[in-house]
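alpha-L-rhamnosidase: structure tokens wanted.
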Amino acid sequence: MKKFFLHVTLIITLFTFSAQAQNKISVTNLQCEMLNNPEGIDVVQPRLSWQIKSDVNDVKQTAYQIMVASTLENLNADKADLWDSGKVTSNKSVNIIYNGKKLGDRQNAFWKVTVFTNKGEIKSTENAHFSIGILTYADWKSTRWIGYEKLSKDDSVSQYSRLSARYLRKEINLKKQVKSAKVYIMGMGLYELYINGNKIGDQVLAPVPTDYTKNVKYNVFDVTSQLKEGKNMLGTILGNGRFFAMRQDYKPYKIKSFGFPKMALQLFVEYTDGSKDIIRTDDTWKLTTDGPILSNNEYDGEEYDARKEMKGWATTSFDDKNWVNARYVQEPGGFYEAQMMPNMKIMGDVKPISIKATAKGTYILDMGQNMVGWLQLKVKGKSGDQITMKFAESLQADGSLYIANLRDAKTTDVYTLKGEGEEIWEPRFIFHGFRFVEISGFPTKPTLDNFVGKVVYDDIKTTGTFESSDATMNHIFKNAWWGISGNYKGMPIDCPQRNERQPWLGDRTTGAYGESFLFDNQTLYAKWLDDIKYSQTQDGGLPDVAPAFWRYYGDNVTWPGTYITVGDMLYQQFGDAEVIKKQYPSMKKWMVYMEENYLQNDLMDKDKYGDWCVPPESLELIRSKDPARLTDGQLLSSAFYYQLLTIMKKFAVIANADADIAHYDDLTTRIKKAFNAKFLNTEKNYYANNTVTANVLPLAFGLVPENLIDKVFQNMVHEVEVTKNGHISTGVIGTQFLMRTLTNFGRGDLAYKLASNKTYPSWGYMVENGATTIWELWNGNTADPTMNSQNHVMLLGDLLIWYYENMAGIKSNPETPGFKQIIMKPDFNAGLTFVNASYESIYGLIKSDWKKTKNTLEWKITIPANSSAVVYLPTENASSVTVNKQKLAQFSSSYKTEKNNIVLTLESGSYVLNVK
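Answer:
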């Protein structure tokens, strides 16, 4: 596997600078709405951001000047005809709101920034770009939706839906020289776009999924270089995706379906003489369903017959006399929106490690890694030879595929050869979660060189690395990376392999926070909050799955509460206040709905799933039946609702809804009183039936009376350390707060034991049993096969947060969200002897690399420019500390001692700290 998967991808420098600062300070990563040079956004006052990169210490921005122009020529001439901010005295370099002339439909904007720092002025010589999309429904009105809403001879509407891909083409004649051209496309469920035979863009499985009755995403491409004066050919292939649902007319009370694939497209052309033209979808487009993609179904796989390939179908030379005219069809119903996050992409390759023949004449291919994507094959054979590839995560004892956990997902690709030399094929409109592939029908003896795994997830960069002295923890981190990336599919899904693959809210309540250290997931989760908002019922209810492809509206606290906790993550990790302002009314509506319907006697009496996936008393069970292991549902929902109220109080300030604060204060006071009256055993100092979850939630949320905090904590420690012999006993809910709570109350050593355990139940037990991702169950190798997903992330809980914030010491100060100031306070005594971690924050790269021996600690720190860090050193003896080989007293006089630590504030730069 390529090393880039586990290492930070450094941002390419975009600028050169004056001689004063050359090779010292640069401005990088200019972004609009946290996207690089986005086309077709629908935000008319977008937020602009940049990073300052420096190899000198103590660089602070003191002011900035943004210039935005309608053309590149204007910008290069310093003619900011859209906006010149002037010199603004500010240290803010993230999320600066555009405040220039009103931006309209299809507006182009080119921009650059001059940054003033305490080290001098940095004048950029290059620039960034964004464009506005189509802002009004009326502008789409004359663009008709087209498709073909009939079945072909081998199609079926059934539990195992089959539908061939739709191929569409349109010849256009551009009679003038093209100056610029952009395509605006909505292709439901999935599309590929071609111009003159060439695929446009490197995206796959586009666009991102939504509830298409609520909102439909359009993508925009600059296609100027693909067009020429004269005849040109536009072509699209439409796949099914989530639109033509994987299970048609099967449990319609539960599973949504949206109809047959369809599309709407505009090609907007500007000619060199200043005139403009718009080519739209209409019934003059030609269409066929008789192409090589016979079926494409996310659960069941893709079938491709290369004998039916139509060479040159997307070029002007192709004869389409046997094609039919496309039909006008009903629009999906949802409002049209710009897609404000990247599409999926092939992000890397995996080469298989072995291939073995079976007794029945098939072959088992082992990728060596449970991955998500598909398999590319290379083959030579006769016309009509048919290769079948069935995908699974593991093998049975006899070496055959283990498929019981796939439920009714067929997970099978079929390729029929055309018989013309070497053929290279990979599917277009599906993905699989797999490590093993059963190959049958291969015309010769296959070798490893015949196959390459294609890794597919959202086109977002890896932002975090982590390595420590504990090999088990390192392996868990790698498994987490693979599990998280594989389940990013335009929305966060629960698993990639069986007949589910749904965006369950409860899986990401805290998980999204930990994931944010590994991936730049801001735009993904901002989009997901919109999905949740759109899924809200008129009376305020929220589902457990959003978009609500499954109609699971049962009301709950711990699952839908993710709507609020993910918003808090976006604010804490990325400093995104606008997302809070946008979502606050819907969040409040849900909180009021739950209060009015389920708050009884000041306790929230609504829980649906309990502490899901507690380690059961038997290795064969999915869920525990032992009451001593299960936590009271009213305790879970009341504690969680209390915590959500404290977050909403913070949100009310951000959203200028101060009038709501008094109500939140009143509710939290009442719930805390009722909670302790009902659940706190003041004689034995524990909550409810004394599960670890029952105790960790009130400790983490501040519900425990101050005089009993230590006693409740010590009781919880006894349950973990003695009763459970230093092992996990929590499910999805308790595990979200376990590691940080243990460490914050002084038992980082016990948290480390949980993190490094190799015996059941533990994350290390998964590793010891061959896991290369994270399981759905603590006993995922022995429990009921139908619940044995081997690629879930929900049981990570707060483990990754603990890795970064408590072991590496990389934490955003809540008072200055988005890592404007970093709190660097590793637990050096938890049990590790070294940690080397990095995180690419919105301000730049943060590094924490510490090693300790019996008598010394060496700690290398990197703080990004225009940021700072509060650093905790494990000593009160200043004479034992050096910073960059200087005695602490010589380096700085602004430090203090606090609870056996020296607390030192460091400005940006690189430092080596030594403590004897």
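The chain is about 20% helix and 30% strand. The first helix runs from residue 72 to 76.

Cheers.
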